[in-house]
Design a protein that fits this description.
- The chain has 12 helices and 18 strands.
- It is an alpha/beta fold and 397 residues long.
- A hairpin with a 5-residue loop joins strand 7 and strand 8.
């Protein structure tokens, strides 16, 4: 009993949909129950957003959710048709029809519950159930979408509800130690822990969103990531609670590009200004990264935080120096390099290796933060590829 999820590139055209349909039909003919979750075909979502802009779309997220949900509906309907053409009964369901009940937050809704009654009925009837990813509906029937990585979240949440295994298929072989586009010699990881995967996702690895890994971890769900239609599971990555590879303290390196340093100097250390600044940041819905405060002059403090350049534009454009009483400084041109691994808390000398490796290669680093399974450094963006390469060699990644 498995849930399989296929990303947009895997269902980008009719030939790919037919190939997946044959694969799914073969699984069903061998006697397995299977649910398929699919994303919109190829660049469909981008095209729908472009159409919305053409007609003058501004801020009506309710209507945009209604429009974007049609992309996945198109895919699952075609896929169900293609499976039936293979001689296997199938039915397509929207998120609403599949019982996904969400919060009332358009464009970034959260799943509150899944009523599997309808899905179970069709499974009992011997059908392959094909579910539209990325979408659901509020208790009042308003269509919502789940935001970035929403189809992955759909598949994992459904597998968790049913107690089934979940296989996520895309256009990559699995999780690599480093993004191969940055470091072509990166190694494919046969397995990675939930915590490592969540950390790498938070710190810039784009293969899976944090939300779906968090759900898998919560329900101890076997999660697999691999290339669509690849039947050899040794060519993908299992995400699990514990790894079997004990001699690999560092699992990988994540990179966050487009990093801006925001700094306010010599502020009163009474918390008033920082409270007002954070209220502005919250009102602008900006997600900031590392935060630090250091002693300044004459009992004052310097306050620093990080975000991407687009979000820094939002802050600068809405920050009134006269109103807040302090000038805000923005420095662009940085990125964040993060070394991730469960061995960081149990192996000595890792921080020393990171810092000495960068120093020997004349790579300047600025803000340093750490957790039990990661060490992150801010460096100048032009040093990104060099830093990744020398750290990869230092840790045999």
């Amino acid at each position: 009993m498995i849930v399989e999820k296929y990303g947009g590139t895997s269902v980008a055209d009719v030939d790919k949909i037919k190939a997946i349909a044959k694969h799914v039909a073969d699984i069903k003919k061998r006697g397995h129950d299977i649910i398929v979750v699919a994303s919109a075909m190829g660049k469909t979502t981008n095209k729908l957003i472009a159409l919305a802009k053409e007609v003058g779309y501004a801020t009506n997220d309710r209507e945009l959710d209604s429009l974007l949900s049609t992309g996945e509906q198109q895919t699952v309907t075609l896929l169900a048709m293609a499976i039936e053409a293979q001689g296997v009964p199938a039915i397509s369901l929207t998120g609403y029809q599949a019982g996904f009940i969400t919060s009332n937050h358009h464009a970034h809704a959260h799943i509150k519950d899944i009523d599997i009654t309808n899905i179970q009925k069709h499974l009992d009837d011997g059908k392959v159930v094909v579910v539209a990813g990325f979408q659901g509906a509020t208790e009042n029937g308003e269509i919502t979408t789940l935001g970035r990585g929403g189809s992955d979240t759909t598949a994992v949440a459904l597998a968790a509800k049913l107690g089934w295994n979940c296989y996520i298929y895309t256009d990559v072989d699995g999780v690599y130690t480093i993004d191969p586009r940055i470091y072509p010699q990166a190694k494919l990881l046969p397995e990675i822990t939930y915590n490592e995967m969540m950390q790498m996702a938070c710190l810039g690895s784009g293969v899976l969103e944090t939300r779906c890994v968090e759900i898998a971890s919560k329900y101890n769900l076997q999660l697999f990531l691999g290339r669509a239609l690849e039947t050899d599971l040794t060519k993908g990555t299992f995400i699990m609670e514990y790894k079997h590879i004990e001699d690999m303290p560092i699992t990988g390196i994540s990179v966050k590009d487009d990093y801006a340093i925001m700094r306010v100097r010599n502020i009163d250390n009474d918390g008033v200004f920082i409270g007002r600044l954070f209220q502005l940041i919250a009102d602008l819905n900006v997600n900031i990264d590392t935060i630090s405060q250091q002693e300044g002059e004459a009992g004052k403090v310097n306050f620093t935080f990080y975000c991407n350049s687009t979000q820094s534009d939002l802050i600068v454009n809405n920050y009134d120096e006269k109103e807040y009483g302090y000038p805000i400084e923005r420095i662009l041109g940085f990125c964040k390099i993060s070394v991730v691994g469960v061995g960081i808390s149990t192996h000595s000398g890792i921080a020393s290796t990171i810092l000495n490796t960068l120093t020997k290669n004349n790579i300047r680093y600025y803000q340093i933060t750490s957790s039990e399974i990661s060490v992150s450094l801010t460096i100048e963006r032009h040093d990104k590829e060099k830093a990744v390469a020398v750290l990869a060699k230092a840790f045999d990644l």
